Every structure is written in C-alpha cells, then in structure tokens.
Amino acid sequence: MSAKELDLLKEKLLAMRQDIFHRLRHLDDGWQELAEKDIEFEEEAQKAELSELYAQLDGREKEEIEAIDLALDKMDALQYGKCEGCGKQIPLPRLQALPATRFCLACGARVEEKKRIPPALP
Ligand SMILES: [Zn+2]
Question: Which of 2, 22, 88, 98 falls between 20 and 30 A from 80, CA-CA?
C-alpha cells in the first residue's frame, strides 16, 4: 500500500467518524423533541419503545466509532491493514470498501458466522 493510498483511507475514516457524530447530534435533537411530545400526550408505552430504539442505535454507532478509532490507532502504529485473524495483509479493495475492517474476507466471514450461532450448551 502506498503512502498516498493510506492517506486516502485515513481521510475516509476521519470522514466516517465525523458523519457518525453528526448523525448522533441529529438524533439527540429528534429524541428531545419526541420526549417533549410524549410528556404532553402521556404515551408512556411509545416513549419506552423509542428509548429502546435509541439505546440500540447508540450502541451500534459506538461500535462503529470504536472500530474507526482502532483503525486510526493501527495507522499510527504502522499496523493498519493487517488481518487480526490470520495476520495477512487485507487486500486494498476490501480496505477501500470497509476502511475500519479488522479482518480479511475469509476471517471476517468466520467471525460473522460465530456471532450468528449462539454458543453450544455444555
Ligand atoms: Zn484473515
């Protein structure tokens, strides 16, 4: 990977990070509005539902930011683009599509598979 390619990926990661923060701020405003409306109409059930949804979104965005920060840290440590599963260099087209990924295609598929299947009972 050339320094220029790395620079472009870094820019992409920083833009993604900013985008998430913008989205979070937007959500905050929307949520505040909804919360005020809910108090007015006393729709407690709906309020609980929205709060749950918000918590979920919050968790996913947090994960995204963590993945981006990890990738940026790796860039600083000159470890960026190395698969955490097999230690091989992740192909550039995959990094360009998913700059915050920690795994090559094969290891990524394995990790996703593990997440989907609950652990077997002893
Ligand atoms: Zn791998």
Answer: 22
Other Cβ atoms within 10 Å of 39 Cβ, number? 11
* DSSP assignment of 6-29: HHHHHHHHHHHHHHHHHHHHHHHH
- Model confidence pLDDT, tens digit, residues 7-37: 999 999 999 988 887 776 666 666 666 666 6
The domain spans of the chain are 3-116
- Residues 6 or more apart whose Cβ sits within 8 Å of residue 84: 102, 103, 107
| pLDDT given at position 44 | 63
Cα(89) to ligand 1 centroid in Å equals 8
**Residue 53 pLDDT > 60, yes or no?**
no
Q: How far is the CA of 48 from the centre of ligand 1 (A)?
A: 41
Dist. CA 37 → ligand 1 center (Å): 49
Question: Which stretches within 42-91 are classed as H helix?
Answer: 44-76
CATH topology of domain 3-116: Four Helix Bundle (Hemerythrin (Met), subunit A) (1.20.120)
